[in-house]
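Structure catalogue
Derive tokens from sequence
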Amino acid sequence: MVKCRHSRVGVSRRAALFLALIVVMSSGLSAGLAAPNLAEDVLLAGPQRTALWPHGVALPTDRGSLLQLANQGYRRAQFFMGLYLDYGIGGEAQPFEAFQWYSRAAGQGSRWAWIKLGDLYFRGRGTARDAKKALQWYLHAGENGEPSGYLAAAMVQIRGTGDSIDWPTVLQRVHKAVQAGVLEGHTALCLLGVRHVVATQLPPEQTRQQCQMSADGGQPFAAILMAQWLAEQHNENNPQLQKQVEQWYERAAAMEVGNLAVLPEAPLVMAEHFPVVWIEALEPLVSANRASVPRAAYRAGVALLKSGQGFVARSRGVRWLQKGAELGDANAQFRLGLAYAQGEGVVVNPERAIYWYTLASEQGEVSAQFNLALLYYQGRLVEQDFTKARFWFEHASEQGDVQARDHLGDIYRHGRGIPVNIAEAMKWYRHAAEQKNVYALTSMGDIYQAGEGVAEDAAEAAKWYRKAALLGHAPAQGNLADLYRQGKGVEKDLNQAAQWYTKAAEQGDMVSQNWLGTLYLDGDGVEKNPQLAQQWYEKSAAQGYAFAQNNLAVMLRDGLAGKADYKRARQLFLLAARQNSGDAQNSLGVLYEKGLGGETDPIEAAAWYRKAIQYGNDSARYNLGMLYYANRQFGSIEEALRLLQDAQSAGVAQAQTALARIYLSKENSHYNPELGERFLREAAEQGGADAQALLGVLLTFKTPLKQDYEQALRWLKKGAEGGSPEAQFHLGYMLHLGVGLAPNAHRAVHWYRKAAEQGFAEAANNLGTLYFQGNGVDRDVFKAVEWYTRGAKLGHVPALHNLGNHYRHGLGVAVDARLARHYFEKAQAAGFMPSKLALGEMLEKGEGGVASLKRAEGLFGEVARSGNMDGKYRLARLYLTHGPEGKQVYAMRLLQQTAKLGHPAAQYGLAALYLKEADLEAPLTDRVKQAYSLLLASRHGGMSEAESLLERLEKHLPEGVRQELQHAFEKTKAKL
């Protein structure tokens, strides 16, 4: 932290009074008016009445002598005692004591003490600020023979006493001062005309006249007001007016020549309030009093640096500081060093910064000592040197600099350039802590919490953290919250933790923002609020905190506060992963492997898994092992086994289950059913829900374990209750179909829904089917579409097909053949035969787009070649309906084969062809008999269309033939 301090210097008595007037006029009365026209017989020693001043005694120049006279009851001595203490003449300023001496002098009728009491009340210096009491003292002075009191009272009214401004009264009191010969009254009227013309309604000519009279009376402030007033009327088309403005500024500067001898501070006070051009005009004048040059140069330099008028003004300010620094002013040397260190008005120059800091430090300028030490400590602008840093920190600390003491504590605590010395560190931290330095208080807490050189003591740590926390220090508030959250050193209190985290988080502490997000996410100490949790994670993540970036990514990935956003989750995981967060690297690998939030990229996934392993993430060993096992091009099965075994040894439950899967699979050379079963049962017994699910499935299907429905159901129930979606799905499946127990579609719906809500696609599809059938739930085609859609979005092929059927036939949605075709296309591309047949039919008929018999033929043929009877039937029908003629014989043979294999539609179609060629009125043929038998089989297979043909044919069949054929069919049906 950069500090800049002003050393106090003494001012002359008249300077003090004149300065007060300057400040009042420039700011509208930021201080009370001192007596503007004190005569020498009032201020200086001379023949006095004994009651006021001892005859023949000159004004003492030291406080001790003056104090003796004041204690003897001389009111003039009492007044000057107050003045010396007020302005720090002859020693340190003591405003409270000054107030007491002014009060004693005022009690004896000192007019100037009345004025000074008004000043102190108005500024709140040496007493509580009270504008109304200030007004009372000023009016008392005015009403009792000191007209400048009226002027001061008017200025107080302008600055405000809590009452509305009574402008007529203000003007009345200023005019009283003017009538009494107070020259500054003209200056006040000038001020009112320039700054408050709307309220006072003073005519412009009167304002000009008052400013002129005041300036003619030697008041430079009036000249400045005149310049400003003219400047406000200036425009580029009036160069003559601009010249007048410059002339008035020059006149104001020239007036100071006479003042410099007794008023060295005046130009610099004015420099802090008025245009740069005025300060520049002082440059040739300051040399009028060489004793005033260092301080004057310093004040002018600071004023220019703070003027806000650009680099040129700041560079001029540096020149003034150079002047004061070269003449030995420590403040100027320090401020010049700061300018060179920060590049303020000059190019950054480390050597010059160190040079001027060092000169100021050698004169005891504490801010320079601290800043110089800080440069050496941080190694900024200069080579790092802890020895020199400690040297200057010690010097600043001896003068009570609290920051230097805190830094000394850091040096001893961390062994910067010296051996670690916790006792010495704690000594300096305690010194700084006594001055309420929050960093030192927090460091004390850190030492006790970590047990650095002392016994670990969380309770003592909490005490120190609390002190800093109550002073508003965010890191301490966060640390105290940590203790409440963990129950260390204090009774565990998540509500208190949340309160302290909130205080720190609201100050921007990113660690506390992250923890506060976690509390809101889990509902610990606060009401559960995922949306608010996400907001705090967002704030922390925006500051680059890797833990928050990872936590926010998890929320977005899992949709914990709304809809999942895989794309942004991937971006945030990447930010945290680049900061070496093993958790984020592993999660990022999973997204790349599954193609969530972007393209699927197993190579990139493997790379992130490897990085996560380097940073100690054991789950990444499991994921990389499974990736190698599933994709042998990335790694061998031996490498996969090694990674899974390492993950298992590290306690990753899924790893043991994965090893069991490998050992139980006959598809690899590591098939070992005994070891696989042992691993699987161990993992299941240890509560691994995935292992329980797998064990239940294997016991159901006796591959390779012995079938045991009772045990299967027991393990599936455990896994389902443990949250495994695979177990929930298979338990629902067994309940749905009645495997090993009585069917219970209602309970099946319950478990299917549990699994589906976790993203288990098969469960979503089956749940859609139950809703469509009204099995276990009320039939609801809209709900069916909803669950099919969820399954389809997860890429489940049967769900894609079912959704296509709903859009094709308008079940729960409006008919949309184009969209149906889209879903069938996606499912058939995955090899799903029913979708190939459905898409072929739509292409054959031109549903949802352009017809394509060639593509339909290809799809039907692909299904037919797999041995599927539906495919053979549809291909045969396509050829028989649309040709070409060369395919008719093949189509007929294919239809006969399919009918013979019991395909109801093929049987019906073949029968229809036979009857189409037959003459039922002619003698009975074998083809007609075959047609009748085919129709009987077709009707039995569910073809309702066969019924009408049977009725028609039976009219032409002799009773004996019909009975014979029916009897033969019954015998065949019995065999089936």
Q: What stands out?
A: The radius of gyration is 49 Å. Residues 239-259 form the longest helix (21 residues). Residues 45 and 58 are 5 Å apart (CA to CA).
